[in-house]
Amino acid sequence: MTAAPRILVTGASGFIGQHVVRELAECGYQVRAAARHPIVFDDPRIEGVALGDMSRSFAAEYIVRGVDAVVHAAGLAHARADLPDSVYTAINVEATRKLARAARAARVKHFVLMSSIRAQVGVSHPGVITEATPAAPTDAYGRSKVAAEAVTAEALDGSRTRWTVLRPVLVYGPEVKGNMAALMRLAALPVPLPFGAGKSRRSLLSIGNLVAALRHVLQTETADSGSFVVADDAPVTMAEIIRAVRHGLGSRALLLPVPEVAVAAALRLSGKADLADRLTGELVVDAARLRASGWSPPENTAVALAAAARASRRNAHH
Predict the structure, then answer these.
(1) How many whole angstroms separate alpha carbon 282 and alpha carbon 235?
(2) Where are the domains positioned within the chain?
(3) Are 242 and 253 in contact (CB under 8 A)?
(4) pLDDT in tens, the chain (318 residues)
(5) CA–CA separation, 100 vs 154, rounded Å?
(6) Cβ neighbours of 303 (radius 10 Å)
(7) Full-prediction pTM beyond 0.90?
């Protein structure tokens, strides 16, 4: 009987990392879950290891030893607009370079970098985004992500280690943090919201669909090294997001038909231009390249949003 593949997952304590570790273990993989601080798991298929501070020194050679694949999901998340590029570079770029080089030296079969759509575009974008859309990041986080992709390719091209970059759009699911958590809190407010007339669409990605994409690239041995944008099947309007979340909470939609330009203008006048882009801007991603390789997102956006809202409420009450 062949031993189950062993996979290193960095960032195991983060929102994405937690789900990846748990679901890969449930699928039969042996998982080495690396986080800044040690985590104890009650699943014998999961081995917790401490990484320490990735912006300084960490034992890259040690944590890649004996693994078949690496899923690098650790990094500085898009949380602070005031941090300089150098902070993002130390964690998101230099740590990635070190880990990729260690994977190459250890002859790891596959290295998967969890990047972001922000490596290509800003908060909103006028056209449909594919892998061919020129990279034009608009902030330090996005610049660090595109640089991390470059050092991955530089370290692993021509080696025995195949590499894949995944560029997810905004990810949602139970216990999500950051911008998506704020959006779900807004949707959960028991008040009418002015998004009933909005036509702008945004691509989102359920954590279940992201994990399905990750499992697909890990299992598709014939896939060439390269990058894939990842998104749910169809983009949604803000009204559809609010309806789905409120449906999950058992609430009425309560959407007012305020023109989108008026909502955007009001937010900009109050000094919230970034929020205006997030709530009324368009960002549509077409994951046709990943689908052409055989991936199909198993979850429907409206159903997954409703489920995430219900789970978040349950967790808040515990």
Answers:
(1) 9
(2) 1-168, 170-205+230-318
(3) yes
(4) 467 899 999 999 999 999 999 999 999 999 999 998 888 888 999 999 998 888 777 889 999 999 999 999 998 886 566 778 888 898 899 999 999 999 999 999 999 999 999 999 999 999 999 999 999 999 999 999 999 999 999 999 999 999 999 999 999 998 888 888 888 888 888 899 999 999 999 999 999 999 999 999 999 865 567 899 999 999 999 999 999 999 999 999 999 999 999 999 999 999 988 888 888 999 999 999 999 999 999 999 999 999 999 988 777 665
(5) 9
(6) 13
(7) yes
How far, in Å, CA of 196 to CA of 207, rounded?
26
| Nearest alpha carbon to residue 273 among 122, 96, 133, 166 | 122
Residue ranges in the chain assigned as alpha helix (H): 15-26, 60-64, 85-88, 95-105, 140-156, 178-188, 207-219, 238-248, 260-269, 273-280, 288-292, 301-317
Within 13 Å, how many C-alpha atoms sit on residue 118's CB side?
19
Token pair listed for 5: 């593949």
Distances (CA, A) of 112 to 49, 162, 170, 282, 313: 19, 9, 18, 28, 32
Q: Name the class of domain 170-205+230-318.
A: alpha beta
What is the separation, in whole angstroms, between the first and last Cα of the chain?
A: 42
Active site residues: 141
Q: Is 291 exposed, middle or buried (0-12, 13-18, 19+ CB in 10 A)?
A: middle
Give the whole-angstrom CA distance, residue 282 versus residue 280: 7
Which fold is adopted by the domain 1-168? Rossmann fold (3.40.50)
Token look-up 């911008």 returns 179
**∠ Cα 97 75 83 (to 5°):** 105
